[in-house]
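Problem: given the chain below (116 residues), write out its structure.
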Amino acid sequence: MLFIQYPPCSTCQKAKKWLDAHGLSYTERHIKEDNPTYEELKAWYQRSGMPLKKFFNTSGLLYKSMQLKDKLPTMTEEEQLRLLATDGMLVKRPILVTDERILTGFRESEWETLLP
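Solution.
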């Protein structure tokens, strides 16, 4: 599985500790140094069944400074995906990509239920 994170992020640190405590193997990827591409984001969004907004880091400084809360509703999905691909700080983290599912953010109860 692929674990996309921003190492200084406390939520990402908790998620990593959880994965390690459960003995799950994963490949780490630094979201700021290796931002998900448009193609990856599009594929993950389509596989996830989640609303596209769940892929945005809505509490992030960049999201707020760009006033995306007001802009996203008028943007197409294509425009939103292209925007997400421009900067890893716009993307909700961590992202966990498995063969079965895509998880954004870390909610321990959700991970407990959905991961083997």
